[in-house]
What does this fold into?
Amino acid sequence: MESYRADVVIVGGGGAGLRAAIAVAEADPELRIALVSKVYPMRSHTVAAEGGSAGVKQASDSLEYHFNDTVHGGDWLCEQDVVDYFVAHCSEELTQLEHWGCPWSRTPDGRVNVRAFGGMKIERTWFAADKTGFHMLHTLFQTSIKYPSIKRFDEHFCVDLLVDDGRVQGVVAIEIASGELLCIEGRAVVIATGGAGRVFRENTNGGVVTGDGMALAYRHGVPLRDMEFVQYHPTCMPGTGLLFTEACRGEGGFLVNKDGYRYLQDYGLGPAEEKPRNKFMELGPRDRLSQAFWYEQQKGRTIEGQYGSVVHLDLRHLGEAKLRERLPQIYELAEQFLGIDPARTPIPVRPAVHYTMGGILVDGRCASPLPGLYAAGECSSVGIHGANRLGSNSLSELLVFGKVSGVEAARFARSVAAGNSASLNRQAQAVERRVQGLKLGRGNERIAVLRKEMAQTMEDGCGIYRLAATMQQTCDKLEELKQRFRNLRLDDQSSVWNTEWLLAIELEYQLDVAQAMACSALERRESRGAHQRLDGFEQRDDVNFLKHSQAHYVAGGPPRIDYGSVRITRSQPGTRAYGAAGEQAEQERKASHG
Amino acid sequence: MAEGQKTIEIEVLRYHPENDTEPHAQVFEIPFTDDMSVLQGVQYIKDHLDGSLSFRWSCRMAICGSCGMMINGVPSLSCQTFLRDYYPARVRVEALAHFPIERDLVVNMEGFIEKLESIQPYIIPREARTLSEGEYLQTPEQLGAYEQFSSCINCLLCYAACPQFGLNSRFVGPAALALLHRYNADSRDGGKAERMELVNSEDGVFNCTAVGYCSEVCPKHVDPANAVNQNKTNSAIDYFLRFLAPKGGAR
It folds into this structure.
């Protein structure tokens, strides 16, 4: 097998991976960086982020406000010291991106403009029209070309980590174009492979979002933390799940039911006013909005559509000119995919899975418990999102923790000697035998059938509201699917561009990650953030569950779940309220702190 | 397939280098609904009829740039091209024109990546600025000077449309030249002189014969033809300046 010797290996070429690569290159130009991505970097799913990226910008704003919004938004399941570091570094990183050429939208005097976003007290979401992720990703990718020490392995699919002498020392990857395996040695490895939303049926995610890096770390004993917290975005296209950004509401859009009524006022988010008001109504957090949809559906106040119940995202009052300027992509999506002119007709929407709050357990410096292994971005759980992520915090996370992971991985790589190549190559050959073996499956199960059943059972058991009985069914079903996976049949045994083989490997990753989600959900006997139960555990339970779940991989069976503590520095768990009730709660908090 | 289900035929150009000496067509019949994209059509084939069909895709919403194909001979993103626009006729899908086929609908795009890397697609600062000094000021008008050219998703449809690229694969081509122009036109950038060498070179803008089909097929309104032609003017000015200035006007 061919070998390549790097110092730092980065798996994933999206926002976090590219930011990490640049950070390593700037920390020490002597370090050889291998950037391994299963797609060309600009195809990574960061590209699809729309609304914007949070960072304190206005004089009326403060780091304390951003901290509070994030911790409250996460229902106090955040690592507060990490949130402090995060909010303190967002704007610096966003400015860095500005210096690298990101075409941020501007105010008339030439400064970077900010917009309102859900759950944020002050406008602090930097945006590039409604293609923020696209512009951030292309800016990072194009800037990365400046650095000669970054060697890209584009369209290389990572199939395992190499662990030797108690620390991670590289990866094994398939070169997709040839089907050949390659051993890439490195003294430190950063995983930046994104989320796992494709384990659910209706989702906003691209086909690449299959939880690869989470499963890789998990199988090597690194716990997956807080996996039960999966975000449903409230405004998605029925059927396909394609996203209509929260910026639609940040710019003043309304959500209305079949009677044209702004129903969010019935769910503790009101009062309803004509102009968008931060943390009220349509600018509430995503978990609350998706939950309100569910109740409207129960009450029969939604609209029946071809792909299930919908409500209307009404942008008509914003006018065509503003929509074309601020939300051009949304305009085109509505026109091309739904045949709707959003300046004249409301857009039918329903919630769909959007984001994985949990992920690979790492500390505030992005280090996992496995020495030499770092993680950043959606695949990681660094602790800033808690039980519910606020929109526009994740793009900033890519930058802030992408950089941290790169700096830390570079430091670690310099502190240890290169590995034993012969030993690593032997390991890599064992990986090759296993992975090649998967291609030869001649059973009777089709990948697409298993994938569809997985996605359906995840939706059934781990949706917006959850019950023990259906969660248990999901856990059982996933165990069954893992058994059936062994009986897979592939149509394609060839080498060049065998994407069916890659889909099989991805499905195996997905089943592991789905199991971590479902089993963690079943064990969390309370309701918090995006994890809501209707079977006697409707309340938040800080006595028993103000803690992080940790799913540990167990070969041949469901994961073992245990718990870790939550770092609370100065924000004690309180009432999480929005709208007028939120304002009142804030007054009371202020009064009690004198 | 359920009784009474409408169907449509998709003719796919297949090529597998391990088995085939040349590409050949294969026809599949799939269930049809009027909201199905061509991408969903080929996904149906892969999932249910032939798992060995290879193609790239990801975002499904015309922003990742992966799923470009020739659809009835027109370079198109398969995710935002709908089968209803062809039904009940058969739809023909092939790999993007002018690129070597790696397999089925997958083309080799390394040549494009090399061109992208060659244009210095990053800010070469006109004046240095530290992070603590904050952002560069850039008015909406200054942003407007390059914004459309920054919207390229690298889908390569414009290369499949460009007859000159078909004749000379060394031509830097529409997307890369549009991106080059994007940086040259950015008020923060001072790297135009360095980039003009490539613009003026024999693989540069003067390959373009102003057919304009690149802009017609662009799914993101980048208008690469406009960028290329602005640079023909720039290149001509640059050419004359060299005679006037002591060390060449561009330097």
